[in-house]
UniProtKB/TrEMBL annotation, chain A:
This is Iron ABC transporter. It holds the Pfam family FecCD. The chain crosses the membrane at residues 40-59, 94-112, 124-143, 149-170, 182-207, 227-250, 271-297, 338-358. SUPFAM superfamilies: ABC transporter involved in vitamin B12 uptake, BtuC. The keyword Transmembrane helix applies. Keywords: Cell membrane, Membrane, Transmembrane, Transmembrane helix, Transport.
From TrEMBL, chain B:
This is ABC transporter. PROSITE patterns: ABC_TRANSPORTER_1 (PS00211), ABC_TRANSPORTER_2 (PS50893). Keywords: ATP-binding, Cell membrane, Ion transport, Iron, Iron transport, Membrane, Nucleotide-binding, Transport. Pfam families: ABC_tran. It is found in: Cell membrane. Residues 8-244 form the ABC transporter domain. The keyword Acetylation does not apply. It comes from Agreia bicolorata. The keyword Ion transport applies.
Length: 366, 272
């Protein structure tokens, strides 16, 4: 069959985006990609910011370590007291913060793209709250064992997150899922789950209720390597799974009909992508509690920084990591008394949500 | 009715949404290398039939054959390499540029490793050039006029590089001059590249001017199939559209031209 190029043989190379630096084709053998230099620059900047924030986070505390000796300690050198402070006391907290941020940023970018709605992120649609109820059940019942922390809490969080997601999706379903109905149902389910949480706390013993309350605001306080491993394995597994399915995202952004016309198995692709998002959210909740608004805000900042039509996944993930790490640093150091990281992220995310809802309404009215 | 050279054949198909069926027991075949247009009054099932041919809607009964094989059992991707469908009123996310939209047309030809081959680049460039969109390639779709937007989507469908094109009202939102541009392009793709085209059009005169074959539908059934001269007649217009009209033959193209009668307006034209 003849190709289009035979009708218009010397067509110029298209510019995918004005003012974003010239996109460049990258071809090695049969491997090919189009890459945008500006995105590569943003990626490098974010990695640098993240390394710096993580470094300051490791160096700062009751026993300060000079920032320049942090790399030394991480590479196996340094003073024994510095080593103990950084590797045993602070590193789990910092590492969990980075991973949780990556998981939330990535999960938010996936759900926002699949549902074609900027407000549809796991923390607003009740998935985080569902995972929270799951994990809380285990905490209230008493799980001060390693098995409890490494297996039971993450498993219960995953179950809770999945149940919440299925519930929201089923209730919003009416021969298809309309974006606005999904959000209304999501917010309602979220409210129900928050109420359930309060009820569970009221019935718990004082010691556990106190622990649970701190955990519920989203905290990185007192994290150990035990909480690090489940979330690490989850981020690894779900990222590996996503490498294959994310290829359908550019087509899914055009709506179900267009995606199907382009050869995407719409139902199957959407389901797998949403399971990945729910899984990442649930494991991050099990490690650090429901850190509010990161899954919602990080992809939206990534979207605005890149000027893309949908949040770029890798940049959203890194943005999430920077957001959690920097917020935790602020919560620990700049505020008069140390607060859980979730309070800082919520303080940033709440106003942003209001801004976005107002803007969406104006657009709909215009 | 089934011809061996038909790339697309509908055999006793029933199509519908929810519990109600819109098309019931329909048979039709699309000849290879032709431009076929479905016409009919609003709600007669034109778009539903087109969606069925593109498998955006699965048949409840009967089957649709693509080169003799039932499309029901085919992989979505294999269909997408042979049949491109432009749905009615598609929507792109805010901020997506023309070039980004058109490049998505290459999706069925790409793999995990190969996502911007020199073939992709050449076909995208050609699709942009053929639709006259090259100079707008870097612009976001939401900043374009209705006509430019429609051409961008057509360019995406072309970039898919399929032998069969299904177009659901490709001239919506276009003024007459732009509508003619788009249909001239369709004609060129058919004539010079041998593409088989099946489209839905509302404008009967454009349908008559640009089609080899016309499928006339009413209430989910095929009323008649034939050349524009055979199908667009005074009787058909009265029976199918409930329209009283004169049909004239255009001297230049030989295509039938519909001139609707008005029961009101005629009395208001001043006679002197």
């Amino acid at each position: 069959m003849k190709t289009l190029s035979e009708l218009a043989p010397r067509a110029p190379v298209p510019e995918p985006r004005d003012g974003a630096g010239s996109p460049r084709p990258l071809r090695i053998g049969s491997f090919s990609r189009l890459w945008l230099p500006r995105r590569a620059v943003i990626l490098v900047v974010l990695v640098a910011v993240l390394l710096l924030a993580a470094g300051i986070s490791l160096a700062t505390g009751d026993y300060p370590v000079p920032l320049f000796s942090v790399p030394d300690v991480l590479l196996g050198g340094g003073d024994p007291l510095d080593r103990f402070t950084i590797l045993q006391l602070r590193a789990p907290r910092t590492a969990i913060g980075v991973l949780v941020g990556v998981a939330l940023g990535f999960a938010g970018a996936l759900t926002q793209t699949v549902t074609r709605n900027p407000i549809a992120s796991p923390d607003i649609l009740g998935v985080s709250a569902g995972a929270g109820v799951g994990a809380l059940t285990v905490i209230v019942l008493g799980s001060n064992t390693i098995v409890g922390t490494v297996v039971a809490v993450p498993a219960a969080a995953l179950a809770g997150g999945l149940i919440a997601a299925v519930l929201v999706y089923t209730l919003a379903w009416r021969g298809g899922v309309d974006g606005f109905r999904l959000i209304l149902v999501g917010i309602a389910i979220n409210a129900v789950l928050v109420a359930l949480t309060t009820w569970m706390l009221a019935g718990a013993r004082i010691a556990q209720a106190t622990e649970a309350t701190v955990w519920l605001t989203g905290s990185l306080e007192g994290r150990t390597w035990e909480q690090f491993w489940p979330v690490t394995v989850a981020v690894g597994l779900f990222s590996a799974l996503s490498i294959v399915v994310v290829r359908s995202l550019p087509a899914l952004m055009l709506g179900d009909d267009s995606a199907a016309a382009l050869g995407v198995r719409v139902g199957a692709s959407k389901t797998v992508l949403l399971i990945i998002a729910v899984g990442l959210t649930a494991f991050s909740v099990s490690a650090a509690g429901p850190i509010g608004f990161v899954a919602f805000v990080a992809p939206q900042i990534a979207l605005r920084v890149t000027g893309a039509a949908a949040p770029p996944l890798l940049i959203s993930a890194l943005m999430g990591a920077c957001l959690v790490t920097a917020s935790d640093l602020i919560a620990r150091t700049l505020l008069p008394s140390p607060l859980p990281v979730g309070i800082v992220t919520t303080a940033i995310g709440g106003p942003f949500l209001i801004y976005l809802i107002i803007r969406t309404n104006r657009r709909a009215a215009a | 009715m089934t011809e061996p050279s038909s790339p697309l054949v509908a055999r006793d198909i029933t199509l519908g949404y929810g519990r109600s069926s819109i098309i019931d027991g329909l048979n039709v075949s699309i000849p290879a290398g032709s431009v076929t247009t479905i016409i009919g009054p609003n709600g007669c099932g034109k778009s539903t039939l087109l969606r069925g041919f593109g498998r955006l809607l699965r048949t409840r009964e009967g089957e649709i054959l693509l080169h003799g094989a039932p499309i029901d059992g085919m992989r979505t991707r294999d269909i997408a390499r042979r049949v491109a469908i432009l749905p009615q009123a598609p929507s792109a996310p805010e901020g997506l540029t023309v070039a980004e939209l058109v490049s998505r047309g290459r999706h069925p030809h790409q793999s995990w490793a190969r996502q911007w081959s020199s073939d992709d680049e050449a076909e995208i460039g050609a699709a942009l050039a053929l639709t006259g969109m090259t100079h707008l390639a870097g612009r976001p779709i939401d900043e374009l006029s209705g006509g430019q937007r429609q051409r961008a989507w057509i360019a995406m469908t072309l970039a898919q590089g399929t032998e069969i094109l299904l177009l659901d009202e490709p001239t919506t939102y276009l003024d007459l001059a732009h509508a003619v541009d788009v249909l001239d392009l369709v004609d060129r793709l058919n004539d010079e590249l041998g593409r088989t085209v099946l489209m839905v059009l509302h404008d009967l005169n454009l349908a008559a001017r640009y089609s080899d074959r016309i499928i006339v539908m009413k209430e989910g059934r095929v009323v008649t199939v034939g050349t524009p001269q055979e199908t667009i007649t005074v009787e058909m217009l009265r029976e199918v559209f409930g329209l009283s009209a004169t049909v004239m033959i255009d001297d230049e193209s030989g295509a039938p031209t519909v001139i609707p009668h008005s029961t009101r307006r005629a009395t208001r034209i001043p006679v002197d």
